[in-house]
Design the sequence.
């Protein structure tokens, strides 16, 4: 791979003062989104990433990247041998770790790995822990949950900054359960403006008259079995009024299970994977509503705010969300669509049986009129980097005072 760094001595390859990004999957669009955000700010970035065999498998990062091996989603214990191999790779690149300005790790397992990586490389760089999800095992009772929460508290005690994608993670988990009172930053799941500004905000849509057929789009990580049950029930109840259109990666749900359902119905379509963000205008132009519901992931489902809420909202697509969930709170507060009460399938049937084109037009115009900053990152990454570099919280003992992250150009000048 052109951008892989394989030399034992990396001092000549990467400028000092870089940001090291430890990631679970270099092919994941969310990882690419964060990397793009850092690069757009001019930061000298190097990622240490695993790779998963699921989608976008041929992707090669166009920034310096060191691959750590292959892992499997949600199989935490099976990753131990792969993580030991990763520590050996960290040690080979110890010069880079020692000269890094910041180490940024996504999710608990990678934050633990980065913490041990600092030990084996003797790096003094501050650690940032980004939590995009709360793994279900972290909130259960019993030995496993207790052990994982204890491990996470070790990370929280040693990290300089906690980054969350939803305020509910702090409000319902980190503060009350983990007793965390350190520095935190809310970084919503928005794409950088440099990538999204190339895409038109207003996309055309059509509504059949006099009896509209409404298309609900379910995009991204298609993993929720309960969502499939609800949407199937809706499709069966209103075959002439509702169509379900799916695009993305069928993960924990299983593609065969999905196809068994879809093949029996003319008003349900799975149209394969897509490339984010370049194909957003195409996929969202085919739908009227954006399914922003997750019901199969324990407390995480209650607290998360999905990527697709921002992606669809950018194009004016009204969201469908559970009223009692954090996503529903955001949808209701910001006027981003419709919130659903239990039983969800019955509420959906009632909504779409009487939905009119005028109702929809008013809702859509309201979302299209919202500022672009509601859906796209305009300076959030820059503020995050400022806080990571100049935050008021004292760094862990022995880590030294934080310095401002150099830009890529500044780092190259330092190397000369």
Sequence:
């Amino acid at each position: 791979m052109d951008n892989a760094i394989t030399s034992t001595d990396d001092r000549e390859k990467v400028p000092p003062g870089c940001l090291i990004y430890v990631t679970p999957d270099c092919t994941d669009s969310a990882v690419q989104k964060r990397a793009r955000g850092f690069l757009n700010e001019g930061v000298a970035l190097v990622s240490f990433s695993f790779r998963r065999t699921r989608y976008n498998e041929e992707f090669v990062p166009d920034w310096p990247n060191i691959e750590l091996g292959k892992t499997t989603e949600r199989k935490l214990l099976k990753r131990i041998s792969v993580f030991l191999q990763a520590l050996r790779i960290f040690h080979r690149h110890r010069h880079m770790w020692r000269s890094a300005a910041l180490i940024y790790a996504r999710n608990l397992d990678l934050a633990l790995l980065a913490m041990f990586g600092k030990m084996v490389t003797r790096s003094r760089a501050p650690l940032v822990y980004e939590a995009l999800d709360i793994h279900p095992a972290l909130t259960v009772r019993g030995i496993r949950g207790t052990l994982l929460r204890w491990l996470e508290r070790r990370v929280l005690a040693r990290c300089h900054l906690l980054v969350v994608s939803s305020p509910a993670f702090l409000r319902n988990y980190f503060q009350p359960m983990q007793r965390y009172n350190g520095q935190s930053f809310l970084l919503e799941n928005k794409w950088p403006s440099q990538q999204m500004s190339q895409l038109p905000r207003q996309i055309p849509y059509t509504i059949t008259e006099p009896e509209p057929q409404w298309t609900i789009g379910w995009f991204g990580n298609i993993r929720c079995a309960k969502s499939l049950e609800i949407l199937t029930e809706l499709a069966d109840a209103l075959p002439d009024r509702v169509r379900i259109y799916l695009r993305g990666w069928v993960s924990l749900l299983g593609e065969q299970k999905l196809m068994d359902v879809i093949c029996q119905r003319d008003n349900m379509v799975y149209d394969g994977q897509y490339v984010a963000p370049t194909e957003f205008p195409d996929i969202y132009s085919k739908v009227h509503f954006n399914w922003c519901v997750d019901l199969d992931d324990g407390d995480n489902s209650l607290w998360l705010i999905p990527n697709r809420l921002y992606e669809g909202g950018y194009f004016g697509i009204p969201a469908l969300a559970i009223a009692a969930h954090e996503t529903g709170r955001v949808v209701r507060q910001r006027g981003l669509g419709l919130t659903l009460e239990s039983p969800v399938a019955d509420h959906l049937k009632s909504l779409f049986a009487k939905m009119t084109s005028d109702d929809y037009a008013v809702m859509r115009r309201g979302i299209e009129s919202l500022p672009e900053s509601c859906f796209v990152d305009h300076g959030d990454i820059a503020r995050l980097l400022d806080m990571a570099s100049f935050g008021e919280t004292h760094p862990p003992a022995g880590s030294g005072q934080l310095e401002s992250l150099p830009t890529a150009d500044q780092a190259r000048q330092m190397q000369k």
Notes: The two ends are 27 Å apart (CA to CA).
